[in-house]
Write a structure and sequence with these properties.
The chain contains ten helices and four strands. Helix 5 crosses helix 6 and helix 6 packs antiparallel against helix 10.
Length: 228
């Protein structure tokens, strides 16, 4: 059953405003619904930033979500405002550009994000992808993990495109045009892989090798002084 996301968000907003009132600093939407790429399997990634949060606030927030339809799909990020302002800047880059504002603005976060933070986002992302890819090849040999690796690579590709062109694209269809051929190949391979329920061992090994080499290239490139 498809979700009327606008109606769901309206119900969500009313519920959190009724509970937290003027303590709310920001409400936003992330993920596939924010990009306009949602499927029936997609989660609803909500962002809620309060003046501060306590364990009681988190329990209350969980109770609110329990009252909403499609509870199993509700996820996302909740934080206090000062914690967000003190967050690792390389994470803030992706957080800012991947979030669709519903109430309030995240524009103040741009004061905390420098060009080198974007390079570091690429570097850290590539390191994580490399590590998980190696682990999966040796130990898990899981198609689901391989799909998750390619999904994670999209965020790195968005950062690469922004670093090199100054443009951030949420949607994969428009992201392609900002990428160089080898990066385009990773994006397209991930798009195709997402639609497959099973693959041969040969294809699994081929896609793993492709990701491993790509991540290795970016790990080394980001470390070099000339990529700045």
């Amino acid at each position: 059953m498809s979700i009327n996301i606008d109606a769901w968000i309206n119900e969500y907003q009313k519920a959190v405003e009724n509970k937290f009132g003027n303590r709310i600093w920001f409400i936003g939407l992330q993920g596939s619904y924010g990009r306009g790429e949602a499927t029936e399997q997609s989660d609803i990634d909500m962002v809620l930033i309060l003046d501060n949060i306590s364990i009681e606030d988190l329990k209350a927030y969980s109770d609110i979500l329990d009252t909403l339809p499609e509870r199993s799909k509700a996820c996302g990020f909740i934080s206090g405002k000062e914690e967000l302002f003190s967050w690792e800047p390389s994470d803030l880059f992706q957080f800012y550009y991947d979030t669709v504002p519903i109430k309030g603005s995240l524009d103040i976060l741009l004061n905390y994000i420098q060009r080198d933070d974007i390079r570091r986002a690429i570097h850290i992302g590539a390191c994580n992808v490399y590590h998980i890819c190696v682990h999966n090849l040796v130990h898990e040999k899981s198609l689901d993990i391989l799909k998750a690796i390619y999904k994670s690579a999209v965020f790195i590709l968005q950062a690469i495109a922004f670093y090199e062109t100054g443009k951030y694209e949420r949607q994969k269809s428009t992201l392609q045009s900002l990428l160089k051929p080898k990066d385009q190949n990773i994006l397209q391979s991930g798009i195709e892989l997402k639609e497959k329920d099973q693959i041969s061992k040969e294809e699994f090994d081929k896609l793993s090798e492709l990701m491993l080499k790509w991540a290795s290239k970016w790990i080394q490139r980001c470390k070099k002084a000339e990529y700045c």
